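#onboarding

Welcome to the new folks! Below is a worked example of what a typical request in this channel looks like: someone posts a single protein sequence, and someone else replies with the predicted structure as tokens. Don't worry about understanding the tokens yet, we'll cover that in week two.

Example request:
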Amino acid sequence: MKNNLIVVLLLLFGCLQKENMKQCEWILGNWKFITDRGTFYESWEKQDVRHFKGRGCFVIKGDTVFKEALMLENKNGGIFYIPTIGNKNEKKPVEFMMMAMGKELIFENLSHDFPKRIVYQYADDDHIMVTLSGLEKGEVRKEVLNFIREH
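Example response:
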């Protein structure tokens, strides 16, 4: 009887994990944010029910000056935003745990320097806002990126 209960709980937990990622699907696709300095591109694709793979880059006058590999992963009972930036953190990924989902995906890692918090906010099917916030050199810093979907 005890084993049956464990199996039922594991199946239920697996279904909940799949459902959680479904609520994040609005992030999928190709996005761009144009600034006076250059253009930031971000793209996301669904790998499977527990993994979304992404990439981002900042391009100035045709030169890519910043690259990052991104992962949204459902593991260990939570959803994690995992960026890997080539020249930061010894090229190791940093995990940000999801704190809220829905029209906003809020991720935090309070032990990280900057950002400590990353928020993806759904505006409509063609617009999302990404806010990065935290401390940098003891000062509060906040960046807001207004992305438009590329068709």
